[in-house]
Amino acid sequence: MLTDSTPAVTVHCLGNFRLEINGLPVAHWRAGKARALFQYLLVNRGRLVHRDRLHEVLWPDSDDRSSSSLKVAVHAVRRVLGAHEGDDGFRLVHQDHGYMLQAQSAWVDLEEFERAFQRGRDLWAAKEHQRALECFQTAADLYTGDFLTGEASDWINEQRQWAQGVALRALAVLRADSLEREDWPAAMHWCRRIISLDPYHEDTYQTLMMMHGELGELGRVRDWYELCRRRLRNDLDTEPTERTERILASLTRRGGRPLAPALA
What is the domain extent for residue 79? Predict the structure, then answer.
């Protein structure tokens, strides 16, 4: 049920793509490139994109800029939006040999994610660390999956890598804060989130090994070490650094150091 505070348009790009207009899901795009056109214009919302650039993005292997394919895709997008439009719905505008997507009221998870992270950075620079952490937490919560999961093109991969980098920076701050407070469950949670995005982040494996060592869980220390070594060796043809090996040897030699009961 829509309320006065409910955005007319809701778009999820982090994870599987979903679009709702006036509470109704949009599932049928008619033309093959219509959805891809909408997605690209959405990321560039409010900016005019020249038609040549749209041809490059949607048909990267074609040199024919006079093809009617773009007009067909534009028409299909307009039919989709027209079937769901309201006073605050999306509008696809044509001007100066290009197209622009406009919306008076829209909630886009990617934009909210970027906004939360930037707000966190600004607050951190202003020494308002607690409020900054809340913003980084919001950004982490919004990052429910990679940008347009399951879809592929050069521009999508570029945007995906950028968004993933932003998420990793937010997660790194949250991990550091948890470690400073010695909140081991939270720190482990953020570490596992980091590894889910970057399975070769050796520093995070080292952190997990040390935390489990502090808890006296030597089996888990060995498990994380072996996972790190296997991924580095099989996927990157490299070995763990000397620091990782020293951490393993030190924890194994002294048998870990259990935490106080209140923290275990």
Answer: 9-104
